[in-house]
Amino acid sequence: NAFMFSSIVGKVFSIEEADKSRYGDRFLLFEEIYQNLEMGYNPENLEYATFCLMHFLASVKYIDQFREIKNIKEKDAVQRSILYMKDNLENKITLNDIAKSVGYSNSHFGSMFLEKTSFTPMEYYNQLKLQRASSLLQFSDLTIKEIAFRLGFYDPFHFSVIG
User: Is the entire prediction scored with pTM above 0.85?
Assistant: First the structure.
């Protein structure tokens, strides 16, 4: 997986001090790697340290994503709409509901969302539902039928076609 970070190898980065710099998070991650390796070099520890190192390197390569993850822009209608969608995955919502939640008309919001994400709002919403379904399948004791019903896929065929 070293090729993933080849674009930053050998480069010097200067990360300016700012509220969103998240220096503390990087220090904690580095400390996590160090303390884990102090517990021994067994395969599990080495694998865990490797994944932590990948996260650490990603925080530099993808600095904007790393910084903004905890700083959702209040004025960004698309980000606010995605939060609205996430909060309503178990409810039946429409494009009108989403557009209204951020104060835009359906057509203006739809084109703005598509331009920023390359998905229509409802395509994005359905992808979020599928991600939630996947998480519930993996980490809960709910059946596929219960998950489909919970997320508003009342027809098993519809649930399987969307996925």
Answer: no
